[in-house]
Amino acid sequence: MAEDDPSWKFHNPDIDQWVSQIKEERDSIAVKEQQLKDWEARLAAESREISVVTQAVSRTQAEFDKRVLQFTDQQKDNVRKQIKVIADMSPDGAAAMMNEMPDDEVAQLLYTLKADISGAILDAMSKQGGAPAKRAAALTERIKDILPSPATNNLTANVSR
Questions:
Q1: Predicted confidence (pLDDT) per residue in 60-113, tens digit
Q2: Cα 18 to the center of its chain, rounded Å
Q3: What sign has the CA pseudo-torsion 148, 70, 79, 134?
Q4: pLDDT tier at 115 (50, 70, 90 boundaries)?
Q5: Residue 160: pLDDT band with limits 50, 70, 90
Q6: Which long-range contacts (CB under 8 A, 24 or more apart) does 129-132 make?
Q7: N or C end of the chain: which has fewer CB within 10 A?
Q8: Quick one: which of 114, 55, 122 has its CA closest to 87?
Q9: 84 and 159 in contact (C-beta within 8 Å)?
Q10: For the chain, domain boundaries
Q11: How many angstroms separate the Cα of 52 from the Cα of each of 66, 77, 90?
Q12: Packing angle between helix 103-112 and helix 130-143, nearest 10 degrees?
């Protein structure tokens, strides 16, 4: 006799509308969740790419810093004194002394000396032949890799033989 009961046959259109709305909201949430997952994957990929680029920039900067000599404030006074001493030496004597010094230091000094003095010293090194001549060529290349500071330009202003 439950079939005769009108409550079983009752149909409420509001409930159908609510169920439909809930299904639409669930589908919308699923779409938004997928969009968030896609964005998360994209951000992770871009983050990895940024990390790779940052590491490459760091490596490039480190290589640049190794390759390029820069004068520090502490070196400026020392370089001024050394320049005065070297400028008063014969090219052969300066070349012999510089053969015992590290390349970076010699390159800085040759860079800072007037061109005629550094040229004479490099000429004296070249005339020694063999390893000193090769070193003179390498030092000439190394001089190109020196970045002057504004104060470095003043180092050579009054240096003469």
A1: 998 887 766 666 666 777 888 888 888 889 999 999 888 888 888 888 888 888
A2: 61
A3: negative
A4: confident
A5: very low
A6: 132/95, 132/99
A7: N
A8: 114
A9: yes
A10: 12-67, 70-154
A11: 21, 41, 52
A12: 60
Residue 26 is encoded by which pair of tokens?
Answer: 């669930």
Single-letter amino acid, residue 24:
E
Contact in structure between 136 and 125 (CB atoms under 8 Å): yes
Residues belonging to the chain: 161
**What secondary structure, in 3-state letters, does the chain show?**
CHHHCHHHHCCCHHHHHHHHHHHHHHHHHHHHHHHHHHHHHHHHHHHHHHHHHHHHHHHHHHHHHHHCEECCHHHHHHHHHHHHHHHCCCHHHHHHHHCCCCHHHHHHHHHHCCHHHHHHHHHHHHHCCHHHHHHHHHHHHHHCCEECCCCHHHCCCCCCC
- End-to-end CA distance of the chain, in Å? 127
Q: Position 152: which residue type?
A: T
Residues in a beta bridge with 60 = none
Structure tokens at 52: 């790779």
